[in-house]
Design a protein that fits this description.
Elements lengths: L2 E5 L2 E5 L4 H7 L3 H8 L7 H13 L1 E8 L2 E9 L4 E5 L8 H15 L4 E5 L5 H9 L3 E2 L4 E5 L1
Antiparallel strand pairs: 1-2, 2-3, 3-4, 4-5, 6-8, 7-8
Pfam family, one: Acetyltransf_1
Protein name: Acetyltransferase, GNAT family
InterPro entries: Acyl_CoA_acyltransferase, GNAT_dom
């Protein structure tokens, strides 16, 4: 299992099935709204389908903060980046640090541009991606030139 250390208390860990932890994140209706613009929690089936897609169509990592899994971050094969942070760990700059690490990984792979789709109402994610250097180029599309 690959581990990428970002800071002493923050690292990325290669995806592995872990429904017991991850389903809790996607049961939070605010998180579901931020991520998928839906007002219903994930089922086990939806969660499994999502992680099957993420892990087979790009690089998917868990975010570990202080020895606790708190979210996930992925770069898809089309160079889109996606991130989820459990609500109780949001607004601590964890996401921003992980996005910056994913930019470094993309650069090492020779990727020239990353993109992120952020719903127009998701001010929190917009601020995080903009702080990492992404620029808005469409209503919900953000680009980072490497």
């Amino acid at each position: 299992m690959e581990e990428i250390i970002i800071e002493n208390n923050l690292k990325l860990i290669s995806y592995f099935p872990n429904q017991e932890i991850t389903l809790k994140w996607y049961q939070d209706l605010d998180v579901c709204k931020q991520v998928d613009n839906i007002d219903i929690p994930y089922t086990i089936e939806r969660l499994d389908a999502m992680y099957d897609y993420l892990s087979s169509n790009g690089d998917c990592y868990y975010i570990e903060f202080n020895n606790t899994l708190v979210g996930d971050v992925s770069i898809f094969n089309d160079n889109e980046i996606a991130i989820v942070i459990s609500k109780e760990f949001q607004n601590q700059h964890i996401g921003r640090k992980c996005i910056n690490q994913m930019i470094l990984l993309a650069k090492a792979k020779g990727i020239k541009e990353l993109k992120a789709t952020i719903f127009s109402f998701n001010t929190q994610s917009k601020k995080m991606f903009e702080a990492a250097g992404f620029k808005q180029v469409g209503k919900e599309l953000y680009i980072y030139k490497i």
